[in-house]
Amino acid sequence: MNSGKWFGEKLVLASAAAALSFGVACTASASQWGVRVTGGSGTHEINKADLGLIWDPDLTWWDTGKWHFSLVGEAHVARWFSRDGRDIYEGGVTPILRFVKNSGAVRPFIEGGVGLRLLSHPTISDDYTMSTAFQFTDVIGFGASFGGHQEYQVGYRFQHISNGSIKEPNPGINFNEIYLQYNF
Length: 184
Description:
Radius of gyration: 17 Å
Oligomer: single chain
CATH topology: Porin
Distance between the termini: 38 Å
């Protein structure tokens, strides 16, 4: 068995178990949970599929009457599809700060956040490596919630992943992503 694939599968399972455990532990205080499916295209001919567990604890502030800030927690597991067949598995967490419209059938928002990621392996191709499996991520994007109880969400994100110059080379990778989310 390919040890990279084995590690990737274990990373995905461990991340999913951690996210589920976290979700069960926080259910009593959470106001809303969501599941997100994301597809993205990145630099170096890398495509990405991502599954996210989203927690909105209803932490809001600076309410202007029409808009407010909120904090959302996200846990992700993803698979990168490289051009030479060296698929990479990714797991991690990101707190997201949003500026959200308070009311309406469609509630637009802008968002940004910084988080942590762990890759199954840092080598993407023979001539491209991220140097470390531990990575940082920053995201910025926009989207909207809609539906009778705001249960649906759609959005766009730009995501950058790099090791923060912990080790060289640190080329990083960028993704343009579209996501769909269902909130419970």
